[in-house]
Amino acid sequence: MSRIEPRxxxxxxxxxxxxxxxxxxxDLVGVTPVGPSPDFxxxxxxxxxxxxxxxxxxxxxxxxxxxxxxxxxxxxSAIVLGASYHTHELPATLRNDxxxxxxxxxxxxxxxxxxxxxxLFQLDAIIRAASGRTSLGRAxxxxxxxxxxxxxxxxxLGFIGKNTCLIAPRLGSWTFLxxxxxxxxxxxxxxxxxxxxxxxxxxTQTCGACVRCLDVxxxxxFVAPQVLDGRRCISYLTIELRGPIPHELRPQMGNxxxxxxxxxxxxxxxxxxxRSARLAALQARPEMVAPRLxxxxxxxxxGFRQRFRRSPVLRTKRRGLLRNVCxxxxxxxxxxxxxxxxxxxHDDEALVRGHAAWALGRMAAPAARQALLTAAxxxxxxxxxxxxxxxxxxxxx
Length: 397
Ligand code: SF4
Description:
Blueprint: H1 10-24, E1 28-33, H2 40-48, H3 62-66, E2 77-84, H4 92-95, E3 102-103, H5 112-131, E4 138-140, H6 148-154, E5 159-160, E6 166-167, E7 175-182, E8 189-192, E9 198-199, H7 212-216, E10 222-224, E11 227-228, H8 234-240, E12 256-258, H9 262-265, H10 268-273, H11 293-297, H12 301-307, H13 317-332, H14 338-344, H15 350-360, H16 366-378, H17 382-396
Parallel strand pairs: 3-12
Antiparallel strand pairs: 1-2, 1-8, 2-7, 4-7, 5-6, 8-9, 10-11
Helix pairs in contact: 1-5, 13-15, 14-15, 15-17, 16-17
This protein binds iron/sulfur cluster.
């Protein structure tokens, strides 16, 4: 394939991209030449260890993951972008209220895929207008076979912390990453676009002796620094896992119902440098911040779709979210939740019925035992019957 010789120099393109990314609302922007993916061997080792759990999609399209040129043969530059989604710290009164569910901060606003991808297309259009290119670049926002964090590190935007997040100096890790592949040669650079376009100097930055994120993880999901056993991660358990949550991990999940932020909350880089989201669509919707668990358990399908319209939470579907809500209610353990959980024992979804039974097994409410015994008589699903038996046994011990 013949190369495009743009009518604008690599240095001028770099200036154009830096300005456009900043104007579009990104916080980070960097460019690096495309080629074999950094960290690919490490990614393969991670898969071989089985840490991906049921995320089978991660092991697909390996040739493309290994080399970005498999995604766009004529690609010469990878533009890596970051957009902060930080809005505010959760007040302690909400964070420590077990009757409320915690949602990871990245999901407080609109679905980032839908917010960021159009911006990548706009950036590509700006580059095309300058270079004379007629074909399209390729844009990826956490949904393609691209090792975004590794490419962000390669582009000089930060380093991968012990919590496996990309940590940008003077910004932290509350950041969505995206990649745009283009055929133009663009001079490499790395900028903190939202801070007067300061150059990022990540090369000397590290976690040092800090291990706060490793220590705070309630499910002990970190096997080693930078090595996460996804199967134990609360984000995986509440979002990616489609079936029942392993019994032994449920008590450690607290009231997280969609994702988990603990390993980012404790990070000193975030505590010191977090910057507020610039993109309006990533601002927190009030109803997404620590909602009441019992309000969520009452949602029917239409109510779920309405409440989480254009939200990343839709990914779990109603049954996945209510499964997580039941676990959080079981961890709360307050008898006030028993009536709603008894009703959930008769939900249309077996996944919800089973986790409601588990939650009732952790409650001292006298009605809970009778409700479990009654449900056991008519429950058609063997998995749920097993959950009920486990719950009844738990109440007797
Ligand atoms: Fe690194 Fe400490 Fe942040 Fe973990 S909490 S990513 S160890 S700086």
